[in-house]
Design brief:
N Utilization Substance Protein A, Chain:P, domain 4, 12 helices, rod-shaped, 4-stranded mixed sheet, alpha/beta, 27% strand, 19 strands, 5-stranded mixed barrel
Length: 429
Amino acid sequence: MEHKQFVLAIEQICEEKGISKEKAIEIVEASLAAAYKKEYGKKGQMIKVNFDAISGGMEVFQIKVVANEDEEIDEDENEVVEDEFDENGEKIIKKKFNIDKNITVEEAKEYKKNPEIDEEIEIPLPAKDDFGRIAAQTAKQVMIQKIREAEKESIFDEFKDKEGEVVNGVVQRIEGRNVFIDIGKAVGVLYPAEQIAGERYNIGQRLKIFIVRIDRDAKEASLVLSRTNSEIIRKLFELEVPEIFSKTVEIKSIAREAGSRTKVAVFSNEDGIDPVGSCVGQRGSRIQTIINELGGEKIDITEWSDNSDKFIQNALSPAKVVHLDIDEEKMHAVAFVEEDQLSLAIGKQGQNVRLAAKLTGWKIDILEDKKKEKDEDSAEIDKEEITEKTEGKDDASEEVEVEKKQSVEKESEKKVKRQIKNNFYKLLK
C-alpha cells in the first residue's frame, strides 16, 4: 500500500470509529511492532515503533530496563522470580536479570548519558518494510483488537454522561429478536425485554430511545437501549412540555404498562398554572405527540395531591369514587363506587386499579357502594307506607260519604211519610 493510501485509510478509520488521529497512529505503531517482533525479533523482547504519518517512515527500538550490574544473568528464562525474606521475616520478590529485557548501567551509557536504575532505554534497531504473511496477519489481528478497544473507550467517553437520557436513533439492523439502533457515533442494542410488546421495527425507522446503561464488559462497547423504561415517559414530557422542562410543573410519579397504558401524576409549583392542562396541551396536541411516539399507548394525566384521599380518587380516574375508607398505617384504601362505575374503576383485567396502586404507592381495593341501594330501598318502603296510608284515608272517606248519603235518604223518607200522614188526617176532618 502506498503511503498516501495508508494515510487515507487511517483517516477513514478515525472517522468511522470515532477515534482520534493520535490514537489511530498508536494503533498502527502497536501493530507494526507486533509484526516486526514476529518476523525479526524473539519472545521476551519489547519492541517499539515510531511511525511518521507525514513521511510514512518508521523507527524501530528495543526497550530494555536498566538493572543492577551485580545481579545474576539468566539467559535461559525470560523472567525468574525467587523468594527472599527481609529482616522482619516478610517475603520479598526479586526479579533476576534478563538479557532480553534488562541492560546494565554501563551498557545503557552508550544510549544515554546518565542512566538510572529501572529507567527504560530505547535501543535502535534496523527498520524493515518487508514482512512475511504470518507477520502481516499478526499486525492485522493486533490492529483490529486495538481499534475495538479504542472504539469502546470512545463510545464510553461520548455516552457516559448520557445514561438516563432519550436520544434519536435509526434502526440499523435486526438480528433475531435483537434490534440494533444507530444513534450517531455508536450503535446500541434493543433487547426483547426492552421492546414494547407488539411494536414492529423496520430498517431505516426513526425512533426515540432511552439509554439505560453502557455495558463495558461486552466485546464491543454496548449501549443498552429501552422503549419500555418508565423514565422515557418523563423525558418525552420534558421535550414536549415547556412547563415540565422549566420545573414549573413537576412529574411526581409514573405507573406504566408499556404498550398499553400509563398514568402520570403531575403537580404545579406555581399558583394559577393547571398542571394537567399544561401536559395535555391545546386540543390535546402535546399529549398526542407523546402518544404517537409510543405507538398509540394510552396516557392518563392526573393531578398529584398530598391529601391521600384526593390523590387516590384522582388516580382511579376516569372512574368516579363515592367515598374511601383509608388505613394510613397499612397504606390500604377501599374505594366504593356505584354499580355502573365498578368495571371502569377496576379496568380491563384489573389494569386501572393496578396502575393507580402503583402510581400512589397504596394498596387499593374496589367495592360496590351498597349504601345508596339501602337508601333507595328505604325510600321505596316509605313510599309504599305513604301510599297505603293515603289509600286507607280514601277508603274511610268513601264510607263516611256512603253513611251520610244513607242518613239523608232515611231522613227524606221519614219526612215524606210524615207529610202523607198529615194529608190523610186533613181528609178525615
